Amino acid sequence: MPSLLQRKLMQIKPQEAYENTRTLTTTTNKGHYLSLRPLINPTEEQEEFPFEALFGGLSDSVIVSKIDDKTVKQDFLFGIHSNRILGLPMQSFPLPTVWKTWESGDIQETGTVTPPGLNNEGIDFVELWQPLNADVYQSKDDYRVGLTADNARSIALKIDTKEFYGIVTIVGNVVQGLLHKKENNTISALRCVVDAETLRFKKYEIKYGEALLQFPSEIPESLVVGSFIHGWEIIEV
Length: 237
What we know:
It is a single chain. The protein has one helix at about 80-85; strands spanning about 5-10, 25, 35-40, 50-55, 60-70, 70-75, 80, 95-100, 105-115, 125-130, 155-160, 165-170, 175-180, 185-195, 200-210, 230, 230-235. The longest helix has 5 residues, at about 80-85. The protein is mostly beta strands. The mean pLDDT is about 95. Strand 11 and strand 12 form a beta hairpin. It has two domains: about 5-130, Lipocalin (Beta Barrel); about 155-235, Protein HRI1, C-terminal domain (Lipocalin).
């Protein structure tokens, strides 16, 4: 089931809860996912990389197991992660998380992250996610709370060459992309929506990095799994 989630709360225990990002996570019908977390008010020191984090992966980079009708366990391996690319601390083993859907429809994520250098003492965290309807999403100020339809547009592309590794997800109207330029270990990111008539990308909320021109700029007319568009392989339609 494709989904678009907006983060509403972050808590790193035992600190107080907060939210200082405009985080959206897109997941395609087959489980390919991207989570882009731009800071709302980055400081001068943060301007060079104005994000909490950028990460995602293909479906084989997350292990999902059902706990009950309202709860699933997800262990994330991350196919692409800004911490790894930028040389920031990051645990080398899967990140275990538990996702529980509340009666309100919101989803509580809990987990424990164990960065290097903490003598294996994990840091517990809680995140609260609100489902948005990806079919009608237009911007950070124009969206509708609710689930995305099972039959919503769900497309994934990847690139994996000597020069680049990247993923693009298109869920409903929402496009997100991450691209690692291997030569100099930089990361580029985009978030935008699809024009209903032309299928071109528009209304960019995120345009970051030196390799933005490598991203696709529209949904191709012909969508065939295994075909390529400007070096990107279509892996889900």
